[in-house]
Amino acid sequence: MQIKSAEFVMSNSDVAKCPKSMLPEYAFIGRSNVGKSSLINMLTHRKSLAKTSGRPGKTQLINHFLINKNWHLVDLPGYGYARVSKSTKKVFQKFITAYFSQRKQLVTAFVLVDIRHEPQPIDLEFMQWLGENGIPFSIIFTKADKLKPKAIDNHVEKYKHVLLETWEDMPNYFVTSSSKEIGKDDVLNYIDELNGN
Ligand code: GDP
């Protein structure tokens, strides 16, 4: 898929106020610093699209971008645990779970993880939550330029090993690097396919 246009639509913290349009939507999420803004800018071939909504608090907002006038790319804030009062139970921030539970336009989520790190509990728990709630997702490994091919394979294998303890199949995954433009076409072509092209 060629990106012909990419425009900022709106930011808000309330899923009920997200665009009413029924265009298919793809959400990008991960811990802060995982390389999400860089990845979005690489995919859309824009220097700072993911920052056009840049103002304090942006990280706690749901940011919609209209791509090629026919689908939405959604930049979600980094996830973390929100503590439930008087309980040790951990849950993800409310508006992130609200977004995934309520947004009918969502086709799939892309969960970003830094390829250099061992599988982290919060990422695994988030994927678990998505799976249990029937929300389709793929994994995007970021910063692949930081590792040699063999180490990349090792890290992907570790993820497979951990995920296959719980799930029957490994989710779709992509190995990317925004600095070296790796994986761009794979992700865009996957979205194109899901859009029925
Ligand atoms: P975000 O907080 O998830 O939006 O992450 P950013 O896109 O702002 O990136 C966080 C840091 O990682 C920045 O210093 C980026 O320059 C760096 N970074 C992001 N993507 C890559 C990548 O593909 N390769 C390398 N080497 N560094 C990256």
Gross morphology is globular
Largest sheet: 7 strands, mixed
Unreliable stretches: 52-58
User: In CATH terms, what is the fold-level topology?
Assistant: Rossmann fold
Tell me the Rg in angstroms. Answer: 16 Å
Secondary structure category: alpha/beta
Task: Identify the notable features of this structure and list them briefly.
single chain; 197 residues; Rossmann fold; globular; binds guanosine-5'-diphosphate
Write the topology of this structure.
Blueprint: E1 6-12, E2 25-30, H1 36-44, E3 62-67, E4 71-75, E5 81-83, E6 90-92, H2 94-102, E7 106-114, H3 121-132, E8 137-142, H4 149-166, E9 173-175, H5 184-194
Parallel strand pairs: 2-4, 2-7, 7-8, 8-9
Antiparallel strand pairs: 1-3, 3-4, 5-6
How would you characterize this protein structure?
The chain starts with 5 loop residues before the first strand and ends with a helix. With 197 residues, it is an alpha/beta fold. Helix 4 links the parallel strand 8 (137-142) and strand 9 (173-175). The longest helix has 18 residues, at 149-166. It has helices at residues 36-44, 94-102, 121-132, 149-166, 184-194; strands at 6-12, 25-30, 62-67, 71-75, 81-83, 90-92, 106-114, 137-142, 173-175. The model is unreliable at 52-58 (pLDDT under 50). The chain is 30% helix and 24% strand. It is globular, with a radius of gyration of 16 Å. The structure holds guanosine-5'-diphosphate (GDP).
Compact description:
30% of the residues lie in helices and 24% in strands.
